[in-house]
Amino acid sequence: MSDNDDLVSRIKQIKIFDSLNDVEIDNLLEFASIENFETDQYVFRENDLGTQIYMIISGEVKITKTSLEGKTYEIARIGEFEFFGEMSFLDPEKKVRSADVQAACPSQLIILNEENFKFFSTRHYNAAFRFLKNITLNIQNRLKTVNEKLVKNYDVLLKSNSVLVENRNILYKLIGFSSDIVIILDSYEKVSVFNIGAENAFKIKSRDILGKSLERVFIDGSYRSFMAEVMATRNVINRSVTLMAFDGRPFPTIFSAFVVAGSDGPASFGGIAIIAQWK
Q1: Integer-rounded Cα radius of gyration of the chain
Q2: Are strands 191-194 and 181-185 parallel, antiparallel or unpaired?
Q3: Do 65 and 100 form a contact (C-beta atoms < 8 A)?
Q4: Using an 8 Å Cβ cutoff, are 112 and 55 in contact?
Q5: Do 187 and 124 fall within a single domain?
Q6: What residues pair up with 259 in beta bridges, in sequence order?
Q7: Does any domain span residue 158?
Q8: Is the pLDDT assigned to residue 40 strictly greater than 50?
C-alpha cells in the first residue's frame, strides 16, 4: 500500500465521514487542507478567532486552559479519527476560541473552514447535510458520555459525602461528650466549639461563651502572651497551665493548643484548637 493509499484509508476512518462515500469525501477534501503539527505546536490559542473544524488523521491533541493565576491545566485529549473546533464551525458568531489546543505528539489534521464549507454545500448539498448530521450525532454521543460520567461521579460524591457527614457527626459527638476540655477558637479567636468537658471545668454553658473571647480564663493577663507563643510555634504541647473558672475558682490543667489551618493552605490561620485535662 502506498503512502497515499494509507492516507486515504485513514481519512475514511474519521467518524464524521461515516455516511459519505469515497467520491463525496474526495470532493469535500478539495475544499479543505491537510497540515502537520509537531509535538507541543499550537493548533490555536485561547481567544484566537477562527471558524475551522479540525479532523485528526493521526496523532493526538491536548486541550488546555490557563487560570487567572497563570497555571495551565490540561482538560482533555482528542485522538485520531476524532474532531474538534466544531462549535465555531457550526456557529460563526462563536468564533472566539475558548481554550488552547496543542499537538500532544506529531499529528496530521484536516482543516475545513466555514466559508469553504459553504461553497462545498452549494455543489454537494446532500453530502453537506449528512456531514453536518454526523457532527451533530457525534456531539450528542459526547454529551451522553459526559452525562453518564457526571451521574456516576455525582453518585460517588453523594456516597463520599454521606460517609464524611457520618464521620464528622461521630467526631462531633466524641468531642462534645468528652470529659476532657475541648475548645476551638475561630480565626478571630472567638469560641466556636465548647464541649461538655469545658462546661464542667469552667462552670459555664456553651451558649453563654460561644462567640466570645477566652481571655478571662487565663490568670494574670497571660492570655495574649500564650496565644502569641501558639501562633509562633504553631502548637504548644502538654503545658502546665492554671486556668480560672467563671465562678472564680482556679484549677490546674495539662494544656495543649494547635493552630488550625485555614482554607488557603497549611500555612494560613483558620483558628486554634485547645485540648486540656484537669490535673
Answers
A1: 33
A2: antiparallel
A3: yes
A4: yes
A5: no
A6: 272
A7: no
A8: yes
